[in-house]
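Let us work through a complete example step by step.
Step 1: write down the sequence.
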Amino acid sequence: MQPDVTICACLWEPNEQSFPFSRMYDEGWVDRLYRGFSRHSSYDLDFVCFTDKERTFAEPIRQERLEGPLGYGALIEPFKLNEPSIICGLDTIVTGDVDQLIEYCLTAGKIAAPRDPFFPKLVCNGVVLVPGGNGWIYEAHEGENDMDYIRGLDVEVIDDIFPGQVVSYKGHVKAYGLDDARIVYFHGEEKPHQLDHDWIDREWR
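Step 2: predict the structure and record it as tokens.
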């Protein structure tokens, strides 16, 4: 059976371009992300990890080899699938039903990204909802930083379509709690493994 939507993440060994707060990722982070989406969706999901080498996962995760330089611009590579997808970082926790977000990927045209919690006139790319037919985003990419590139595109804002469903830990959850969050994305300092919250223990496993 053809999967309804693909969940995409990237993993590569840390290098000179890696920030200090993004050097801890390994296969276990990918497995946790897989399990989070699997628990909270009724759709048939495919899960693809774009990676620098062959890896061993506990879950049935498909692997695609990263082709470009192993920096943050590589996070654009999942767009080349040209199929309905959700692209997110490994420091992401699924905390509730994501079916509405998946339905967007199956029915909309433009990609959607969250409003930057600290620069509300801009979007960020903690989680990107990607309808099919957007492979051109990969084809047009010229190696720019992934965040800058996404901000230069014509995108919908997830916060406007699905208020409160996709939120930043640092910008929202830390101060206000989970509320109706379905996906919590982390950025910069403070990652899930450094925090002591019941909802992390429950959902990040």
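Step 3: interpret the result. The beta strands are 5-11, 45-51, 62-65, 85-88, 92-94, 112-113, 127-130, 156-157, 166-168, 183-185.
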